[in-house]
Automatic annotation (TrEMBL):
<dbReference type="Pfam" id="PF17396">
    <property type="entry name" value="DUF1611_N"/>
</dbReference>
<dbReference type="InterPro" id="IPR035086">
    <property type="entry name" value="DgcN-like_C"/>
</dbReference>
<feature type="domain" description="D-glutamate N-acetyltransferase-like N-terminal">
    <location>
        <begin position="64"/>
        <end position="136"/>
    </location>
</feature>
<dbReference type="InterPro" id="IPR035402">
    <property type="entry name" value="DgcN-like_N"/>
</dbReference>
<dbReference type="InterPro" id="IPR011669">
    <property type="entry name" value="DgcN-like"/>
</dbReference>
<protein>
    <recommendedName>
        <fullName>EBNA-1 nuclear protein</fullName>
    </recommendedName>
</protein>
<dbReference type="Pfam" id="PF07755">
    <property type="entry name" value="DUF1611"/>
</dbReference>
<dbReference type="InterPro" id="IPR027417">
    <property type="entry name" value="P-loop_NTPase"/>
</dbReference>
<feature type="domain" description="D-glutamate N-acetyltransferase-like C-terminal">
    <location>
        <begin position="142"/>
        <end position="335"/>
    </location>
</feature>
């Protein structure tokens, strides 16, 4: 029922192309899996499938499951990461319909596809795959704190779903363009679907978080860089444990703070104000020095998607002068992003 996989190596073999399932989602932040695949694996996506009531769209062509299969899709990807990672009852008829149309199902939710009786029965009857990406490798060791060879960059954030994955992917591409030996290391379900490998850190038992991060970024050549996708935020009331384990285990030489200007509350936890970028730098240095005393901040990645070009450029220049480090939007790119890359490699 699960995909062929080498879990220790983090290699997944996923049926492609995909159709992206958005359910009845109304919160854009919860559809980050779909948006991530659209933006970073567009050649693997044939369209989207939405249910009545959905207000979120990727902008891809709306298709039925049968239409998606006729266009070449081989799997339906649940493109939503909602609170608790659940698959609601009102989605399930559509998921069964996708199986009947000839599509496998891929999910990165905490709820396992095979644990849902109607999906398990349909997949067995039709000979289809139910593929859960959010499954950690077996026998993860406890973290040792041993200093590993090679160089590492970790993206951290002031909140969830504001650009840590996008920043890591953009930096990995920038390093590659400069001829630098590097790898993108995925730590979340969307990154794994894009990269084809990784470890879903939020599915790991807390005692083994640091050990999983050590597996994710093993010893490497002295000049090799691992660009590690961050998770959550050190100050998030729900997800800080994942962020801390990833920080300690990845032992970053450099970190980049990701932030969305204008966001005031933490995603999914109304009443908790967003942490300032300065506090995240302070906390990351304080806690990160436990496993890498030489850790430093390379700069800031701002998600300025809500701003026009001129306003974004002015804001980032002002904040860079105030903070004393480069500030750039990795999606916009340009000279400011080149300066950020320079700072990370300095």
């Amino acid at each position: 029922m699960n995909a062929m996989t080498d879990r220790i190596a983090g290699v997944l073999v996923l049926p492609q192309p995909y159709v992206l399932f958005l359910g009845d989602t109304t919160v854009p932040g919860f559809a980050k899996t779909a948006f991530g695949l659209r933006d970073w694996a567009a050649d693997k996506c044939v369209g989207e499938l939405r249910l009545p009531g959905a207000t979120v769209t990727t902008g891809l062509e709306a298709l039925t499951a049968a239409e998606a299969h006729a266009r070449g899709a081989r799997a339906l990807v649940i493109g939503v990461a909602n609170l608790g990672g659940v698959i609601p009852a009102n989605w399930r008829a559509s998921l069964v319909e996708a199986l009947e149309a000839g599509l496998d199902l891929i999910a990165g939710m905490h709820m396992r596809l095979a644990d849902i009786p109607e999906l398990a029965e349909a997949a067995h009857r039709l000979g289809r795959q139910l593929i859960d990406v959010r499954v950690p490798p077996p026998q993860i060791p406890v973290g040792t704190g041993r200093k590993r060879s090679g160089k590492r960059l970790l993206t951290v954030g002031t909140d969830c779903a504001l650009g840590k994955k996008y920043t890591a992917l953009a930096l990995a591409r920038a390093f590659e363009r400069r001829g630098i030996d590097s790898d993108f290391r995925a730590s979340g379900q969307t990154g794994i679907m894009i990269a084809g490998g990784g470890i879903a850190m939020d599915a790991v038992v807390s005692d083994f978080e640091a050990g999983a991060a050590e597996l994710l970024s093993p010893d490497a050549a002295p000049g090799h860089w691992d660009i590690i996708e961050g998770q959550g935020a050190l100050t998030h009331p729900a997800y800080a444990a994942v962020s801390l384990g990833l920080l300690h285990g990845s032992q970053p030489d450099v970190f980049v703070v990701c932030h969305e200007p204008g966001r005031t509350e933490m995603l999914g936890t109304a009443g908790y104000k967003l942490t300032s970028v300065e506090e995240i730098v302070e906390l990351t240095l304080l806690l990160g020095r436990r496993t890498n005393p030489a850790i430093r901040c390379g700069g800031f990645a701002f998600n300025t998607s809500a701003l026009g070009e001129a306003a974004a450029t002015e804001l980032m220049a002002r904040e860079s002068a105030r903070l004393g480090l480069p500030v750039a939007d990795p999606v916009r790119g340009g000279p400011a992003f080149d300066v950020l890359v320079d700072s990370c490699l300095a």
